[in-house]
TrEMBL record:
SMART domains: AAA. Transmembrane segments: none annotated. This is AAA+ ATPase domain-containing protein. Residues 225-380 form the AAA+ ATPase domain. It catalyses: ATP + H2O = ADP + phosphate + H(+). GO terms for molecular function: ATP binding; ATP hydrolysis activity. The keyword Nucleotide-binding applies. One of its GO terms (biological process) is response to stress. Keywords: ATP-binding, Hydrolase, Magnesium, Nucleotide-binding, Signal. Pfam families: AAA, AAA_assoc, AAA_lid_At3g28540. PROSITE patterns: AAA. Residues 1-25 form the signal peptide. It comes from Citrus sinensis (Sweet orange).
Length: 419
């Protein structure tokens, strides 16, 4: 049996011969013949090295981010070898642990069931990013059938241990592929600190717990696993604090959607599809979405130059178009919450807020869009006692009976009491 050195020498000689033939073929032979030799050469090299490359792109062909890409980055973080000479380090705001990640073109080696796999992060012209997993072709079934599911399972375990809540807003960077940009959500609000009637808080928490446990129920009845809430009431009654308390209670990220920043239904659909599971989508002041007007146009009408019948008509038409666009975007959002697109994600909470529930179209309030209506009322004695405990550390006081009489006679919000 020939030695390994002899075999490598023969293989190298054959490869050199093929390269020489390929060079002559490109110069003197027709394209069809040249392509034939190119393909034969690639097949020959593939047999020599017997290597399989799996490419994991950050984004799929549609609108969704590739879960495997995110899982791979998370799992490979603790496997960075000491011989890697370029490592990215980051200490996000309000976090205590430094996060490490491999720089582009650096390799990380992992061993799974005796199989050596090499991961490499490569950055291509935006927006394509990929991770390359090089493994022996013979163990393809092992990699795809066992290793990849292992990566996904392990990433879920790691994400539960180290998850930090994030607040997402629409990205202003048009060049970047990302639709959302995030910041650390470190809001102290909890159900214990909310200035709300105890029975109401218990009802909300019970509803959230019931929602989390009913995955099989939603699938059995053929409904998307989501829940819609409408928070309505005057300014300063704690709608934003309730949303933060829900996020902390569920440990869900929050997506803050401003419809005024959306450029149409197509953009809206892309934005909504880009949200992750286990998240809360917030649309504040939904009653204002159909009342938006072009303020710059209104400012121009204050100038005498714009006071002419023709210009006034043009501005009225423009404002009418903007008005209709906002209505369509609002209904597009609501149709998303209970249409076919709503099934594109699981375990999602959608929260709408408004100061004027009576201004909303009844079609927007029906179950399937807004399942739970929560009235955020003026401050009650129960809410006042919670605020007194939070701010002053007082749980009982002789003046509480007098405060109760005054609160019943006066409409005051929790925000005003806190001040």
């Amino acid at each position: 049996m020939p030695s390994i050195t002899t075999m490598m020498f023969v293989a190298a000689s054959a490869a050199a011969t093929f390269m020489l033939i390929q060079s002559y073929a490109r110069q003197y032979l027709p394209d069809e013949v040249s392509s034939y030799f190119d393909q034969k050469f690639k097949n020959f090299i593939a047999r020599i090295y017997s290597e399989l490359t799996l490419v994991i792109e950050e984004y799929d062909d549609g609108l969704n981010r590739n879960k495997l890409f995110k899982a791979a980055k998370l799992c490979l973080e603790p496997k960075i070898p000491p011989n890697v000479n370029r490592i990215k380090i980051n200490l996000p705001k309000k976090e205590s642990e430094v996060s490490l990640s491999v720089e582009k073109n650096q390799a990380v080696v992992d061993v799974f069931n005796g199989v050596r796999l090499k991961w490499k992060f490569e950055l291509k012209p935006a927006p394509d990013q990929e991770l390359c997993n090089n493994g022996n072709y013979i163990i393809k079934e092992t990699v795809l059938g066992t290793y990849i599911p292992h990566i996904l399972k392990k990433s879920k375990e790691l994400s539960k241990k180290k998850k930090t809540l994030k607040l997402f807003t629409l990205s202003s960077n048009r060049i970047n592929h990302d639709t959302w940009q995030s910041a650390i959500l470190d809001h102290p609000s909890t159900f214990d600190t909310l200035a709300m009637v105890t029975d109401m808080k218990k009802m909300i928490m019970d509803d959230l717990e019931r929602f989390l446990k009913r995955k099989d129920y939603y699938r059995r009845v053929g409904k998307a696993w989501k829940r819609g809430y409408l928070l309505f009431g005057p300014l300063g009654t704690g709608k934003s604090s309730l949303i933060a308390a829900m996020a902390n209670y569920l440990h869900f990220d929050v997506y803050d959607l401003e419809l005024s920043s959306v450029e149409g239904n197509k953009h809206l659909r892309k934005v909504l599809i880009a949200t992750e599971n286990k998240s809360i989508l917030v649309v504040e002041d939904i009653d204002c979405c159909t009342e938006l007007q072009d303020r710059s146009a209104q400012a121009r009408t204050a100038s005498p130059y714009w006071h002419s019948p023709r210009r006034d008509l043009m501005l009225q038409i423009r404002n009418l178009i903007l008005f209709v666009e906002r209505i369509l975007e609002t209904f597009g959002l609501l149709n998303f919450t209970n249409g076919l697109w709503s099934s594109s994600g699981d375990e999602r909470i959608i929260v709408f807020t408004t100061n004027h529930k009576d201004r909303l179209d009844p079609a927007l309030l029906r179950p399937g869009r807004m399942d739970v209506h929560i009235h955020m009322s003026y401050c009650t004695l129960c809410g006042f006692k919670i605020l007194a405990s939070n701010y002053l550390g007082i749980t009982e006081h002789p003046l509480f009976s007098e405060v109760e009489e005054l609160i019943e006679q006066t409409k005051v919000t929790p925000a005003e009491v806190a001040e």
